[in-house]
Specification:
- There is one protein chain.
- The chain folds into two domains: 102 residues, Outer Surface Protein A, domain 3; 226 residues, Rossmann fold.
- With 386 residues, the protein is of the alpha/beta class.
- The two termini are 24 Å apart.
- It is built from 13 helices and 13 strands.
């Protein structure tokens, strides 16, 4: 182990004997009392020395025997220590790819803040390279989501859509203007490759008709599917029949989209555990008996104009959807599980709408009361490390 004080947390002395790590209340920690010699020793925790050398340096500075081990243990318990060489073999392989590592250093710094154990952040970052995510939709939301996930280190991001790129599909971070007229799926895959921190090898495209969670020989199964259709109605009121293969395969999936002037992210569907598209449809019909009739009219095959999709709103939705997806892939319980986040222009006031599991839905999530799902994003508070 090569201990390093987590560089993402800025340090400052509150007084002569107390150090604060971190600025924002969500992750700030206070350590004290700290004597002058120990304060000077902290400068050596920069990841360039192993524990034996650090103990030797501590003795030279007059620190008592065992003090360095206790200090490092205390800092580790408080979540303030990272391991510059930790994370396992996959992390070691990523470190050797210096170009990719340089691109991902901000993401690693962020992960180190939210993962308490030394080397845990690097382990999670390296694990993303082995994951496969499918994004369904290559419009202003879907293409940006796919590019963000690729840039954040997800190893394989597949994009599915039909037709050709129209001028109104173009968005910063998504499909570029020079892709107009190209096939949407091909243009989105190029955007994904351009965004990748480390160009992954080209893989064979999924065969037509393959199951929702099916993987071609030699490629990983789907870790997550993000449904971000160009027609926001299909995210706002998703078709339960279209989601049946995902439910049957047990594939987690997340909805995201923009309809009129409202953007939504969620729900994140964990098949058999949280509410699905069928639950959403049944619950809405229970609350509004006219909903199925209205929905049938909105889905009719009439001529449609270019749908409303405010660029700032769609970019916000894409960013939030990508953030929830990454939180899930990294093993957290994102606040979109069984919940839909919504915001409308011009206020952009995000609020939540719980999506209850319906007892009549065949997905099974509502058959037994499984209790409340963990919800992240609560009001942060100061944490003291004594």
């Amino acid at each position: 182990m090569h201990p390093i004080l987590k560089p993402a947390l800025r340090r400052g002395w509150r007084d002569l004997n107390t150090i604060q790590f971190g600025v924002a209340p969500a992750h700030a920690l206070v350590l004290g009392p700290v004597d002058t010699a120990t304060g000077s020793f902290l400068q050596l925790l920069d990841g360039t020395r192993g524990l034996p050398l650090l103990c030797e340096e501590g003795r030279r500075m007059g620190l008592p025997d065992g003090h360095v081990d206790k200090l490092v243990g205390r800092l580790s318990s408080a979540g303030l220590i990272d391991d510059a060489t930790g994370g396992g073999s996959a992390a070691d392989a990523l470190r050797k790819r210096s170009h990719a590592m340089d691109r991902l250093r901000p993401d690693l710094a962020s992960l180190s803040v939210v993962t308490p154990g030394p080397g845990d952040g690097m382990r999670k970052l390296a694990a993303r390279r082995a994951m496969r995510v499918q994004v369904r939709g290559a419009g202003r939301v879907g293409a940006v989501v796919a590019s963000v996930l690729s840039g954040a280190g997800v190893g394989q991001v597949d994009v599915m859509d039909g037709g050709i790129v129209e001028p109104w599909d173009v968005a910063p971070g998504g499909l570029p203007a020079d892709a107009v007229g190209d096939r949407r799926d091909a243009a989105a895959r190029r955007a994904v490759r351009r965004s990748a921190s480390d160009r992954p090898p080209r893989r064979r495209r999924p065969e037509a008709g393959a199951g929702a969670g099916a993987a071609s020989e030699g490629e990983p199964a789907l870790s997550l599917v993000i449904i971000a259709p160009r027609d926001g109605l299909d995210a706002h009121a998703p078709d339960p029949v279209a989601a049946e293969p995902l439910i049957g395969a047990g594939t987690p999936h997340l909805y995201a989209g923009v309809i009129e002037g409202t953007g939504s992210v969620g729900p994140l569907v964990l098949p058999g555990t949280t509410a699905c598209a069928g639950c959403l449809a049944l619950d809405r019909a229970d609350r509004d008996p006219t909903w199925p009739r209205m929905l049938a009219q909105w889905r009719s095959g009439g001529v449609r104009h270019v749908t409303a999709c405010d660029l700032a709103l769609s970019t916000t939705v894409a960013g939030l959807a990508a953030a929830h997806a990454l939180a899930f892939l990294d093993g957290a319980a994102p606040a979109s599980a069984g919940v839909r986040w919504e915001a409308s222009v011009p206020g952009f006031d995000w609020h939540t709408r719980p999506v209850p599991a319906h007892p009549r839905c065949p997905c099974g999530a509502g058959v037994v009361d499984k209790g409340a799902h963990p919800v992240m994003g609560q009001e942060p508070h100061d944490t003291m490390a004594g």
